[in-house]
Every structure is written in structure tokens, then in C-alpha cells.
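Please describe what follows:
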Amino acid sequence: MNIDFAKMGGLVPAIIQDSYTSKVLMLGFMNEEALAKTKELGKVTFFSRTKNRLWTKGEESGNFLLVDSIKEDCDKDTLLIKVRPIGPVCHTGSDTCFDEKNEEDIMFIKYLQDFIDRRKKEMPKGSYTTSLFNKGINRMAQKVGEEAVETVIEATNGTDDRLIYEASDLIYHLIVLLTSKGYRIEDLARELKKRHKE
């Protein structure tokens, strides 16, 4: 990383983004020491211009920002730090310093995919997902078929609540099936994107 601190008078802006929701949470400033401390702790540490010292976000509130990645921009004078926030980010109690809710329900699908990947790797006993992997591809494919039929039944003759419930089961079992074959839900997104025409 070759951030040009001197070019910016010793401080560079650090954009803090939630790794999970992609929401911008806040903007802070870092000097070289703050960046080094951030890397060392795995928690975002700023240089506080008002306190005139290093300040680890959450040191008083416990609402830390756990670092997933740090990138520099093309001009090497701004940082993008992706984090997992512990609690609200803003001192006002808001999720973000822009008074936005830090939610993006569609991103739960990615979380679920990552969770299922971990299940396949760790295979913990007592897990339903583990049991599906243990039963093999035929059973997983069968479950996708069963859930698809139940989704169709609810769509044509059932209730909206049951439709959502069964369609959720279908998506879950489809992700398990894809994972067993070495694919991820993002592979479907790429295929759909490729097919899409305005």
C-alpha cells in the first residue's frame, strides 16, 4: 500500500463501508500511524482531529469496526475500508453517520451462501445442511424438486405467506445443490446478467 500521506498534509480520508450491506457508514481521517494501528488491531483506528490523537472507533462505546479489507484509490490519497460493524456506527445511535439504516435484505442471500460454504467445509454434526451434503447429490436434487413443486402449489392454490415460505425453502435447497457442485448463487447472477437485455 503506497498512500501518499505527505500529499494530503499527513491525513487521508478513509471511507468506511459495510462488507455485508455495501452501505457507506462514515468517513474519517487517518495518518500513517492510524493506518498501521488499524492493520495491527484489525479494528478501524482514526486520527481524531478534535482530540489530536489516535482514536480506535468503539474504544468507549464498544461499537468497533472490524476490518475485512483496506484498499487505496487510484490517486493513492483515499482509503476504502470494508468492515463488519459491532453496533451502531454514529455517536447519535444511528446505524450510519448519514442517518441511514444499515440494511440490505438481498445481501442475506450472499451471507447464506457463505454460511452454506462453511457448513460444507466444516460438516458439523447435527446440522441439517450437513445432513443434506452427507446424503449426496441425488437427495439434494430431489429436495430442490420437492420444494419447487410446493412453491408452484402455493402460487396457484395457496396463500401468499406460504408461497414466500416455500419459495424460501426452494432457494435454500438450490444454494445447497449449487454448493455441492462447486458453484455459488453468484454464478446464477452472472448468467442472468449475461442474458439480460434492456
Notes: The first helix runs from residue 32 to 41. The mean pLDDT is 95. Strands lie at 12-18, 24-30, 45-48, 53-56, 65-72, 79-85.
